[in-house]
Amino acid sequence: MGLSIPHLLVVLVIVVLVFGTKRLKNVGSDLGDAIKSFRNAVKDGEEAKALANKDKDDEVLEGEVASKEKDKV
What we know:
Blueprint: H1 5-19, H2 21-58
């Protein structure tokens, strides 16, 4: 009971008749810009998180073992 190609074409024709091609082009462009901005924000957030984790790993707290080597007997 899914949508077939002819059903989708009828819906597309109705949408074009209601909104017009110029408005649909603007909506598509705005949607593309929004997706691009979202991807850039996610990428920037991941980079900031990686930098924060790197800085956190570089700090040695008092009483913390800085080397992971086992004591040699």
